[in-house]
Specification:
The chain has about 240 residues and is mainly β. It is built from 1 helix and 19 strands. The structure holds calcium ion (CA).
Length: about 240
């Protein structure tokens, strides 16, 4: 008797919403019209998420955080770092139901800053940036560039290469370009930094050198952050 009563109350015309979808991440538990609270986790880099609400036959009036949603439309919700609670209210035939989706914008976010050209000011370097040591004079010996790894996210950034070589130089690259100083710690907390130094030996005969380095880490979309390097040696002063 009791279960029949519940079925009568929650089923049939009470089905105002038949699905909740996210453009990034997946709600948990799976959607069930009778379950009104959901959670999802998206990467720290996700500054917004699109929410798609599907409703049954006689479409309910739906609001997302107070704004009404047009039919077949998606609601774009901007996300703060950490937990964001999105409130969905569906109304039809004098009946109303409220769903909440708690979206946790959570994770590490790697940023690497350094000069793209020897002697330049530091910039935020994109994954794959070419860093140019330029033309070094014979007697200069080596040129060194410092790079800073910053964790802009709200979870630990983990440098995942085998210690202590967290910055992995391409073994097929020219040996004139090498890691002078490695990061010290493999775990960089939120807001934390680590520094490494790449050196280019310019004290050779006239030649161009190229190499690259990867910084394996747990950022979900920059997990093999790569920097490329070129340098030139010049003995014309001899
Ligand atoms: Ca990232």
């Amino acid at each position: 008797m009791l279960s029949g009563c519940f079925l009568g109350f929650f089923g049939g015309p009470g089905l105002l919403v038949s699905g909740i979808g996210l453009s990034d991440g997946t709600i948990s538990p799976a959607f069930d019209p009778d379950v009104t609270e959901y959670e999802a986790t998206v990467p720290y880099a996700a500054e917004q998420v699109d929410l798609t609400i599907t409703s049954d036959l006689n479409r309910a009036d739906i609001t997302v955080d107070g704004s009404s949603l047009s039919e077949n439309d998606t609601a774009t919700v901007f996300l703060d770092p950490g937990m964001n609670t999105i409130t969905i209210v569906a109304t039809a035939g004098g009946e109303s139901r409220t769903y909440t989706v708690s979206v946790n914008r959570f994770g590490p976010e790697i940023q690497i800053t350094g000069p793209p050209f020897f002697g330049d000011a530091d910039e935020d370097l994109a994954d794959g940036t070419l860093v140019e040591f330029g033309l070094g004079a014979y007697f200069e010996g080596t040129r060194e560039i410092d790079f800073t790894i910053t964790n802009l996210g709200n979870a630990d950034l983990v440098l995942s290469a085998l210690a202590p070589d967290f910055v992995v130089i391409d073994p097929a690259g020219d040996s004139e370009i090498y890691v002078e100083v490695q990061p010290i710690a493999s775990i960089i907390g939120p807001g934390g930094t680590e520094v490494f130094t790449i050196a280019a030996d310019t004290a050779g005969v006239v030649a161009s050198h190229t190499s690259s380095a990867t910084i394996p880490n747990n950022d979900p979309d920059e997990g093999d952050f790569e920097l490329n390097f070129t340098s030139e040696s010049d003995d014309s002063m001899l």
